UniProtKB/TrEMBL annotation:
Major site of localization recorded for this protein: secreted
Keyword Signal: yes
Family membership noted in the UniProt record: Belongs to the kiwellin family.
Name of the protein this chain belongs to: RlpA-like double-psi beta-barrel domain containing protein
Subcellular location: Secreted
Any one of the GO CC terms: extracellular region
Matches recorded under InterPro entries: Kiwellin-like, RlpA-like_sf
Keywords, comma-separated and alphabetical: Secreted, Signal
Keyword Signal annotated: yes
Length: 115
């Protein structure tokens, strides 16, 4: 468990996601979706595939969680602060498929599209 949320600190929240286009710009972040990880809980709109483009490569990935930036700092989200509206959390497998060296993690500018 991380200790990212600070008592009395206010965090920005977003009421909607950024606009989705053919290739939506975002920042890829490293996350764990294993039990007890920081990936959050599955939502009913998920389990759809997207294609992530980064580091000169692409990979198909399944969406299993949607970040709710208005409800964070809780056990379901590993007590992390609210996330921006342009983040794509990805497992180590996605990073490996994009062949991003560990030294260049945990953030990478990417594009993604629905498949």
């Amino acid at each position: 468990m991380t200790d990212c949320c600070k008592q009395g600190k206010f965090y920005p929240t977003f009421k909607c996601s950024s606009r989705v286009s053919g290739h939506t710009k975002a920042v890829l972040t490293l996350s764990s979706f294993e039990k007890g990880g920081d990936g959050g809980v599955p939502l009913n709109r998920c389990l759809q595939n997207i294609t992530i483009y980064g580091n000169g490569r692409s990979v198909n990935a399944m969406v299993i969680d949607e970040c709710d930036s208005t409800a964070r700092c809780d056990a379901d989200h590993d007590y992390q602060p609210p996330c921006p509206n342009n983040i794509v959390d990805a497992s180590k497998a996605v990073w490996k498929s994009l062949r991003v060296p560990e030294s260049d993690r945990p953030e990478l500018d990417i594009y993604w599209s629905q498949t």
